[in-house]
Amino acid sequence: MKKLLILMMAVALFACEESRKDAKLQLFLTDAPSPYEEVLIDIQDVKINVSSEDDEGGWRSLDDINTGVYNLLDFTNGLDTLLGEYIMPAGRISQIRLVLGEDNQVKIDGDYYDLDTPSAQQSGLKLNVQVVLNEGITYKMWLDFDAGRSIVEKGNGGYALKPVIRTFTEATSGAIKGVVKPVEAKPYIMAISAVEDTFGTYADTITGNFLVRGLEAGSYKVVINPANEDYEKITVEDIAVELGLVTELDTVKFE
Asked: Domain DUF4382 spans what residues (predicted)?
């Protein structure tokens, strides 16, 4: 009888393992170029919420998180780095929580300034994602920092970090890339959809390259707005974006 019970338990365990439907999530960090020399972010944990409600029991840390201080400007114009991955039952992810440490700094004119980040240090910065993972599929998701908009100068001369981050997956997004000449124009590029959603990035200050990622399919207006007052704004209409593809513009030249 004892052997029969053990056999039944083994069969039940095998059946449970066979019926489990897993998916893999890989999470990457990327950034839009910014006018700063360095933006250093101290990442201590990344958690995902696998429940439909915002309760502590639904949060799980990604496996083997690559913690530490990252210079966001190392990951611009299509570059990224893997933060960690998580094998989980297929289903919906409702939120991601990015937990930061205390070693956050910005470098301006050769000097480093501490970034005040109280809310992110306490419980983590919550990002709503609402992504469904299907069984047997590996998904890549990016945390796309906008470093240029995330640094806020305080009245006392210091700086605060108020992260502007959006998320996108490889399977549900497209992109627009191009080159701006001359690089001295230092433009900010905005991709504006038909429903007035706006996504932006700075052109690389050395090459003039830019890449706007995480775009839904549709038609976009691209506005190239130079920081240098010697140049005038350029608008390119009717740019088509398709899922899983990168739409490349002709070189944009300021007169």
From this structure: 23-163
Cβ contact 64:27 at 8 Å? no
Residue 122 has a pLDDT of 61
Q: What is the extent of the structural domain holding 240?
A: 173-255
CA distances from 32 to 124, 164, 166, 212, 231 (A): 21, 11, 11, 8, 22
- Length reported for the chain: 255
pLDDT tens for each residue of 22-78 = 788 889 999 988 889 999 999 999 988 876 555 566 788 887 889 999 999 999 988
Report the CATH number at residue 209: 2.60.40.1120
State the Cα–Cα distance between residues 128 and 49, nearest whole angstrom: 10
CATH number, position 7: 2.60.40
Mean pLDDT of the region 95-110: 92
Q: In Å, how far are 115, 136, 231 from 112, measured between CA atoms? A: 9, 45, 31
Closest Cα partner for 120 from 165, 63, 162, 173? Answer: 162
Q: Give the model's pLDDT for residue 16.
A: 40
Q: Residue 212 carries which side chain, given as an amino acid letter?
A: V
